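Could you help me review a protein record that somebody else here produced? What it holds is a sequence and that sequence's fold in token form. I need someone to confirm that the token line plausibly describes how this chain folds. Take the sequence as given and treat only the tokens as open to question. This is what I was given:
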Amino acid sequence: MKQIELKQTLYEQDLNAWFDDTLIKLKAGQFDAIDMVSLIEEIEGLAGRDKREVKSRLIVLFAHLLKRIYLNSAENNRGWELTIREQRRELELLLQQSPSLKNHLNESFSSAWKTALSEVREEYPQIQFPEQWEFTNNIEALLNQSFWNLKNYD
């Protein structure tokens, strides 16, 4: 039986080497020598990665805001607030680097809220969390405001 040898591209063999090679070709203006299909794939992947990161950080932010606002647990508040600060800082950095991601953050708001709410309800089934985010949807407020200071505890 004859063996069929498949020649792998540099992209398939060594991604980092392919990056280096592609950068050299781009800088030299050797556009015809660039593996455009792989380059497009990588650019699409980068765009998707940033959008996934925004949504993931928004879910974590909402989950910890829910805990901090509605549980009011003195022994856990500091940890929740540290996580809230970290997620806010990382979201702000992403938005500074790519301001257009703010549109994605707005689009992901409802979905991220529902995911975080579901996770927190599973973790704390005894607590009545609201169906909807009770505060402003303004991104600046979400990234800066201490919503737990606005909540009246019974």
In short: Residues 92 and 143 are 8 Å apart (CA to CA). The chain has a mean pLDDT of 91. The chain is about 70% helix and 0% strand. The two ends are 79 Å apart (CA to CA).
